[in-house]
Amino acid sequence: MCGIVGYVGKQKAAPLIMEGLKRLEYRGYDSAGVAVFQDGRFELAKKIGRVANLEIEAARHKLTGHQGIGHTRWATHGGVTDANAHPHISSDGTIALIHNGVIENYAQMKKFLLTKGFTFKSETDTEVLCNLIAYHYAKEPKPTNGDSRFVESVRKTLGHAEGTYGIVIMALDAPGELVTARKGSPLILGLGDGESLVASDVSAIVSRTQNVVYLKDGEIAHLTANNFSITTLSSGTVEPVIDKVTWSIEDAEMGAHAHFMEKEIFEQPTALENAMRGRFSEDGSTAKFGGLNITAGEFRGVDRFMFCACGTALHACMVTEHLIERFARIPVECDYASEFRYRNTPLFRNSLFFVMSQSGETIDTLAAMREAKRKGYKVLAINNVVGSTIAREADGGIYQHVGPEVGVASTKAFTSQLLIGAMLALYLARMRDMSFSDGTQFVEALKQAPNLVRKALEQAPHIKAIAKRYAKSQDMLFLGRLSLFPIALEGALKLKEISYIHAEGYPAAEMKHGPIALISPECPSVFFAPNNEIFNKVVSSMQEIKARKGPIIAIVTEDAELPDGLADEVIRIPQCHEAVLPIVASIPVQLLSYYIAVERGCDVDKPRNLAKSVTVE
Ligand code: F6R
To answer: Do 3-250 and 453-604 agree at the fold level?
Structure first.
């Protein structure tokens, strides 16, 4: 949430920062701003709306300096106004700051600062933090421990701050220096050739350098064009680890596609191949994972799994729950990460925790993970972004390896989570009662997933035509059973988040206990009806909808035969193993939501009020 970019080096800072902000816009797009240090002062441009608006505004300001900070905002404290946009400059003009996160005790700080003569132009917690740094900076004597006065004043200020932050700061009398610090919001340093960068996401840095340092919570970094040092909030020293980003800028570009979401939907066969590469045993009868950091013996001792996640990732957990219980016969519980944290769930002694998170930065998931660890449990993470906070704090985990996901609506990350969940179910089942030959069949089935998804994607033109017919709907139901109930939830989430059509996901048979009241010729139902043991039950649910004149869009496997005239629209998906079915069944609902949103003229990659990676509670 909120995109952050800072630059110091030989180039003009503003164009580089704005290029970075465009890549981060999916983190928040209420407003954008940039402050550049030039001619001994801060030159500031900020504007509500997209980075494109900021570029127009910035052109009027003639930003020529070689050092600057920029921000895209997802509003928390204070409305969407130019004044509330970041960067903020202290009222004495000495400090410029950008911030991702929430300062919870900003009201007390503000009261104090008002007594000291500071004034405020915005309603934000960020401006308060900025002024408090200015206050400490003005009072700060030169430290004796070799640190800069600039770093010390930031350290002192953060000692008073409650809440979360990723901040980057410039000081008027420290040209060529950036100070950055984090607690709960991601920050990455980029070490280029005669230039240094800092950003909330690697994608803003990777066009300049692949050498990065992931800042940890409680760390402060001091950057100049050719140097950097890291200390802790409590003045401890830090030996930085320089990592290499393994993907290039092309991976985060849209290419010939109209939207990132479209690109990422069509990338799924390759993404699935990458997610399973090298992860099957040599005898081809089970899965293997390199980074779980837990022995087979420990795994066998687990008598209950707990999965926590948010949004789409929680739907992937729910499918995983179904598969682990079905194949490995181990009880699994799934919970919204945000609820788990405060619910005080009674836990079993031999529980093992998993969290799932594409970004690895979702604050609710991170908090649930920390709560489980605090209670003494091991927590493993299924996560896409390498080096993310969740990946680093987990006891072990499985990377998704699907490359950057930029579209706010998750697609390829979701299906790769489903695949990894299925592989985990296989791994656990093979430790228990699943035979070698059943394991081999399972592995063969999983290897088919990319090709089956390719086949499902061939339905795109047909689904586009259906989308045109239903794009004006105001409500839609998504109905599925067993492992496809979570896919019904996911279909509804995908549709509502990008097209703003009200949609609900339900277990198909549960629909008659309430949601059926919504049914009318104007409220279509999307049914998942694979040819399995409860196919006829799903058909009965369809009949109940049809009897009330509700239009039906049926997603059926190729071998399923529906009664004539029952469904208004039929989308065929290939037959497949039940562990692969949720993956293949996701494709039509992703495409349906995408094409409906495009038909309605919605901003698919940046839906209103949303942001990728929710780093505030
Ligand atoms: C919906 C979507 C969100 C995320 C959720 C968790 O399309 O993308 O619901 O799934 O915000 O995000 P991560 O997986 O990054 O923890």
So the answer is: no
